[in-house]
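For reproducibility, we list the full input for the zinc ion complex.
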Amino acid sequence: MKKIEHIGIAVKDINKANETFKKLFGKAHYKVETVESEQVSTSFFEVGESKIELLEAQSADSAIAKYLAKNREGIHHIAFAVNDINAEIKRLKNEGFTFISDEPKRGADNKLVAFIHPKSANGLLVELCQDAE
Ligand code: ZN
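The corresponding predicted structure, in tokenized form, follows.
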């Protein structure tokens, strides 16, 4: 793994959260994107080399809605950049990690992404992401 690519934060109201994080970072988000397959709205802030991704549920079926039904707003996942996501999935499965889906999917911000189940990573939802071509 190369570095922390971004930290994902689950929020109830992305417009309000955008204002809060704009004040925090001293600059606005650079991108807003809806990921239809996940039923989430996202916005991205650049903070030095890292990014913060805000996530708001678009429907009650969204993983973010289910998360916020059980947890308060806050850190939802940490994403790590990888060069070859398929090779990393294979390596980590061999190490005993469980993935939420077996194949990488198209995520926000032009990435291929895969999530490791928090049960196999001490409660942390880990996202692997590779730049999509
Ligand atoms: Zn993410």
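The pocket of zinc ion is lined by residues 6, 8, 53, 77, 79, 127 (CB under 6 Å). The mean pLDDT is 95. Both points were considered when choosing residues for closer inspection.
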